[in-house]
Amino acid sequence: MNTRLGKRTLMCAGILTATLTPLLSACSGDGNPAVTPEAETGTTALDTTSESARYRLRFIGEWDTSQFGSRPSGAHFTGLIGSTVNTQASLWRSGELASAGFENVAELGANSNFRNEIRAAMDANQAGVLIEESDISAEGVATLEFAINRTYPRVTLASMVAPSPDWFVGVNQLSLLDTNGEWQSQLTLALPVYDAGTEGGAVFSLSNPATVPAMPIALLSETVAGQTEFENGLVGGRAMASFEFERIE
Questions:
Q1: pLDDT at position 166, please?
Q2: Is residue 18's pLDDT more than 50?
Q3: What pTM value is reported for the model?
Q4: Which among 11, 143, 213, 239 is placed 20 to 30 Å from 77, CA to CA?
């Protein structure tokens, strides 16, 4: 952790609300949340074999006290950041060390250095379109749209769970193409919490010692009765947030 940065000045909560249908909370073998395809809604079918597509993404906070117990003051998810990518990109990955820019995302909700890393990936032909959205409250929702194509058909995204030592939710190289190489119409993902491996601490707090040496990114497993009772990124089998993708063009 870069102790020269003031954590408390870098985060704020959005005030939004949403309702959500139940989500699948299991994790797939590649470290991403398991994907639940949704049924067609009866709208005009889009060409699933087209070169490009456009998606609407809803980032939904489900950090409610009835399911997760006590919640720290000011609880929120920091501004979402990521990109469309190909398989060569490695912006963050479970089992690997966090980059300096990603450490700032996970510890501070500060995205500027990670944004520069994304732009470097763009210059290296590993990333396509920058994806960003503002903070959301613990039970809020943010909606955004982004373009995607077959050169960069995957998405990597992350948002800090705040306040926390270095915990975040997100996906790495999630493909929006199905196993037949066709654009998926809709999918929903429950998001487990990850530990970036850069700062110590077992509860929802900001001021903690750096982890030396840093540890690989991993699903969070911390147990402090009444505060943090995580197992593989979930609390009682439930995720604290979710993504809903819907193809719109």
A1: 97
A2: no
A3: 0.83
A4: 213
Contact 55, 243 (CB under 8 A): no
**Contact indicator for 131, 59 with CB cutoff of 8 Å:** no
- Per-residue model confidence as pLDDT tens digits over 69-84: 778 999 999 999 999 9
Six token digits for residue 234:
């979930």
**Closest to 146 (Cα-Cα) out of 218, 245, 77, 68:** 245
For the chain, the domain total comes to 1
Q: Quick one: tokens of 66? A: 């009835």
CATH, residue 170: 2.60.40.2130
